[in-house]
Amino acid sequence: MNIRRRGPNLWQCVWLVSKDPTSGRWKKRYETVEGTQAQAEAYWYKIRRELDRGTAIEPSEITVGEWLEQWLALRKEQIRPQTWERYRGLIRNHLIPTLGSTKLQDLRAPAVQAALARWRTTPRGDGKPGAISSRSVRYCLQLLQASLDQAVKWQLIDRNVAALVSPPRLDPISRSWWSPDEARHFLAATANTRWGLVWRLALMTGLRRGEILGLQWTDINWEARTLTVRRTMNRHNEAGPPKTIQGRRTVALDKETLDALRNAHEQTPGNTWVFSTRSGTPINGRNLSRAYYQAIIQSGVPSIRFHDLRHTHASLLLAEGENLRVIADRLGHSQVSFTAQTYTHAATEAQREKAEALAKRLRQNCGRTDQNPPSEDSGHS
After folding, report:
1. Strand 2-7, strand 226-228: pairing
2. Is residue 340 scored above 60 in pLDDT?
3. What residues contact residue 64 under an 8 Å CB cut-off, 6+ apart?
4. Which of 43, 93, 160, 273 lies at 20 to 30 Å from 36 by C-alpha?
5. What percent of the chain has pLDDT over 90?
6. HSE, side-chain direction, 13 A CA sphere, residue 286
7. Which residues have C-beta within 8 Å of that of residue 175, sequence separation ≥ 6?
8. H or E element in which residue 117 lies
9. Residue 287: which region, alpha, beta or left (left: phi > 0; alpha: psi -120 to 50)?
10. pTM to 2 decimals?
């Protein structure tokens, strides 16, 4: 055993790895270990056993940041472009600034846990105000875990320290939605505007912005009064398939929305896209969002995100007593439980209305005199 003191609680461990058959010299492995002498000795014996079994991992100078960039490049051809862009943003804005300079083999769980706390309290790396959400922090941790899993498979490290870290508790999701009167007023105020049909379709179907912009006229079944979501438009104005199997779905249309679509179709003969520029090309999502916020200002309704039109659709259906399975199918959710959890507020309101209706019914019945009270020896079920 070859261990030398290099300072207070600092030890240099040396191992003979292999002998060069030509020169006869031994190849040596050096590592500095922090801790007590007993801990350094235990580490020396651990590496010695791994060297003897041929399972020891050679020390590497690669940093966490360099490895994350390599892993990100490997993933580019395996995932959707929009998902890859999100990975890149989280890695470059959050993971690399906090952990990137650490050597991959020196990364420890406490450093990862400290990074999670830092992400929740320091300004965002993308220039937007505030810190990232607890959900994004969890996503960063998942990305780090996935990249370290690959590093373990390639024998760059011997274990995934990110798997030892506890993710943060998720913050309650704050959602906004319109009341029936607000939704009705917005539709009436924008009915005859250029993008009025877009707003109507979002409120009446719950489609996402990218799904609406990806609609083609061949997706409309005029006889069945339905539309089918077959593609979605990403932020780069590129059309691709829905992210999940459930995302590819058929949604029933009300007569008024179908009539509005038919009228738009007649006015744009030869167009492929349901919503397009004046030259017939797909609409840029950011341009549509700018038009949406202008429409909100002009109509005077409370400001909510475009995506919240989808939440408004689901909330209004729940208030009407619609079945959760039907709502989940319209939204493209794979699990009804997710729909129920997401729209707890609307479900609670619907329960409250039912409870009030039941109480009113019971009050009315209590005033009737043509019913005999149950006898004392009546059976109970």
Report:
1. unpaired
2. yes
3. 95, 96, 99, 100, 101, 102, 103, 104, 107
4. 160
5. 44
6. 3
7. 308, 311, 342, 345
8. helix 109-121
9. alpha
10. 0.61
